[in-house]
Amino acid sequence: MLFVYSCSSNLKRDATQQSNNTKKQDTVLTEKTVWKPNDTLNISNDTFGSLVKYGRELLLNTPYYIGPNGTVSKNLGNIMTCSNCHLSAGTVPFGFNFFSSHARYPQYRAREDKILTLADRVNNCIERPHSGKPLALNSKEMIAIVSYIKWLGSKTIVGEHVYGDSPMPLDFPNRAANPEKGENVYIAQCLTCHGKSGEGKLNEKNTAYIYPPLWGPQSYQKGSSMHRITKAASFIYCNMPQKVATYQNPKLSVEEAFDVAAFINDDRIHPRPYELKIIDYPNLKHKPIDFGTGPYIDSFPQLQHKFGPFKPIKDWYLKHGLEIH
Ligand code: HEC
Ligand code: HEC
After folding, report:
1. Same domain, residue pair 126 and 97
2. Same domain for 242 and 307?
């Protein structure tokens, strides 16, 4: 099947080049092989192995252990689970996985303009989107999460990415993402699970979500990566509606993914938890082009940074020798 045509521009280019060289393109597809994470059958029966298992457990059932009513600690401010976004404990290609995460930290982080360890980065997600308090760096829970991520990517090369570990790069639509069109996509494709008011659906005991919330006080905050249109659109394009879309076989068009991401993340209509501490890109050169609040290094209006069109901003950055984040 020619699924590669429906995905990223890079894949498309590979396939097009291929079709110029050979007529039998359907049998010689050049989709790069996505990297395969370690298999849980390979978890060792020793101290490290038990930490890895606990780390995986924490990613799958986060609120049970460290949620507002957690059995171990009460670090999180909401009852979302890491795996609501880092799908299947960070093992899904183009699903915010952890394939090469251990190999790429410590790394420079633009948001703080500092070098962060993997544990610091875990705590970033605990503070935002989980509205929580950082885990102690020497807590069993932090060590378990980092051990799991290390184990998952144990065959990766220090400092290097592997194919499929990053959000799928989508071609920017030529127009701004449109929240009104996005609402129609939401009603047709998302509402049954995520609810009329984006509130999601709790399990019977109200201890975790069957379907996580997309906005409102129990959802992620402004300034979470999912609040950025390009990140959310890429995730949605490859993974939603759940059990229907995959990165090989997306259900929405790229424009629909941008529109619905814009609808979900439109702060004019959808409230989010209040954020106390805002550390945002001390060095504006490294600020993502779709970050929804200024200041910016360029003079494009805030609304264009939020919803696009992103192409003119991207071109401006390239012209000025700046990297696109
Ligand atoms: C609402 C969605 C969401 C939830 C819930 C969430 N994260 Fe994240 N997390 C993200 C996004 C989006 C990124 C950025 C991914 C990217 O840009 O590739 C990220 C990045 C990370 C990274 C850095 C990965 C890398 O390779 O750079 C780590 C580690 C991480 N999260 C850990 C966690 C942990 C642990 C939890 C649970 C306590 C958690 N996250 C919960 C959305 C979420
Ligand atoms: C069949 C039910 C279902 C449908 C339909 C569905 N989702 Fe989801 N969605 C889920 C589940 C379940 C998760 C959490 C994944 C997990 O825990 O494995 C999720 C996670 C998400 C997340 C990340 C977590 C969060 O709360 O921020 C976003 C964003 C999202 N969905 C957007 C959408 C959009 C947009 C659509 C429509 C195009 C959609 N979903 C359709 C079930 C669904």
Report:
1. yes
2. yes
Which pTM does this prediction carry? 0.92
Do you find a cis peptide bond into 212, omega within 30 degrees of 0? no
- Å from CA of 176 to ligand 2 middle: 23
Asked whether residue 225 is assigned to any structural domain, the reply reads yes
- Give 142 Cα–ligand 1 centroid separation in angstroms: 14
Amino acid at 303: L
84 lines ligand 1 (CB under 6 A): yes
- Nearest atom in ligand 2 to the alpha carbon of residue 244 is 1
Cα 84 to middle of ligand 2, angstroms: 8
Do both 23 and 77 map to the same domain? Answer: no
Ligand nearest to the CA of 76: 1
Q: What ligand has the least distance to the C-alpha of 99?
A: 1
Give CA–CA dist 265/226, Å, rounded: 8
* pLDDT tens, residue order, the chain (325 aa): 333 333 333 343 333 333 333 333 333 334 688 999 999 999 999 999 999 999 999 999 999 999 999 999 999 999 999 999 999 999 999 999 999 999 999 999 988 889 999 999 999 999 999 999 999 999 999 999 999 999 999 999 999 999 999 999 999 999 999 999 999 999 999 999 999 999 999 999 999 999 999 999 999 999 899 999 999 999 999 999 999 999 999 999 999 999 999 999 999 999 999 775 666 788 999 999 999 999 999 999 999 999 999 999 999 999 999 988 8
Under 8 Å between Cβ of 249 and 300: no
CB burial string 194-219: b at 16+ within 10 A, e below? bbeebbbebeeeeebbebbbbbeebb
203 lines ligand 2 (CB under 6 A): no
